[in-house]
Amino acid sequence: MSVTEAMEEGEEEQPNSGDEAEEIGKEAKQVEEEYSWPVIRFDVPPHRTYHFCRQFRTPSNPNNFLKGVKWSPDGSCFLTSSDDNTLRVFALPENGSDHQESVGDEAADAYSASNVVSEGESIHDYCWYPYMSASDPVTCVFASTTRDHPIHLWDAASGELRCTYRAYDAMDEITTAFSIAFNPAGTNSPLAGVLATFRVSSGLVSTPSIHKGFAIVIFAGYNKSLRVFDVHRPGRDFEQYSTVKGNKEGQSGIISAIAFCPTHTGMLATGSYSQTTAIYREDNMELLYVLHGQEGGVTHVQFSKDGNFLYTGGRKDPYILCWDIRNTVNTVYKLYRSTETTNQRIFFDIEPIGRHLGTGGQDGLVHIYDLQTGQWISCFQAASDTINGFSFHPFLPMAASSSGHRRFGIPECNEDLSIDISEVMKTALQCGVSHI
Hints:
Shape: globular
Number of strands: 30
Radius of gyration: 24 Å
Structural class: mainly beta
Number of helices: 3
Helix content: under 10%
């Protein structure tokens, strides 16, 4: 895994305070006119700032590999998932945007993970609390879902388990969520107050802070259904919505990806392994559209920054499809990536300004596309292995990538493993096989 820094133009300038109001006003006006978000130059190859490899490999699991990486909403750290059923939090150093890795540093990791969380089984999905801030420890949480386990809410600072959300099937057995996502609606959430109350009960915080406002919930994807959990009510309380109606219309299969519209229009998109993507109304879960066209099961969905377009990608599918949600008859364009022969979930991401999309693939390259035209802009070699995760920093000209895929060892052929052909024929005839 590596963290790269793109070449940028434009820096934020701070106004100098003066004694006269007129001078302050002129300075503020000048700064306002000169200020702009960092413009990332994709025509210049980025340089690698940090590299992590050694801490993911252990003697007991030398073939461990990464499965994805996601920046925290405040940009203070990033979260990784790996095949050893472990989530790791890496805090970005204060001089993170100024650091540059020296040549020959590949043998050693830049620094160690600040927090390590071990799950019991394979991790299906994970996500950050949308209003996470390192300055407010109460909000420093992320959720994860693993095979044969309920949904867990983890403390990103201490690694402690905050809450558990359990879903049960018709046999009253715990059923596993395959995808999860927080709904970002509402800036004032009871989550902070409730989590503070839990921390008070464990003696971690002396005074709770209760906030009233819109409730943020967790949407979880299951087989032909969605379940909604209220974050301040851990346990087995949830609302369930079937994605298939009585006449078998709707979205079938396992709900493998969930995304919410960033402009708070009340829409959410869900991807399914049945090669379809559905768009719902968040308030009453009314099905608006079902999109067909993906060649493989949908593994990742993401809205554009303005909320007018939806991007979907699937496994064993070399194209990311762009949909205009105002006219879903046909796709707007397709973005190529090298994912024709892999079942891995390959994450892509859109930069904060919303103009470009970056995605990895099996060729070890990160491809950058212009979302206004759908044209390829550039690419750079991020690793010599499959790039399964790529994530832009929320506001700095940086990005993180994760790489790796599962490898199977082939045993060496020797005399002890040889089989007599006569024994094979005998076994085949006993099983009723006419030929081999």
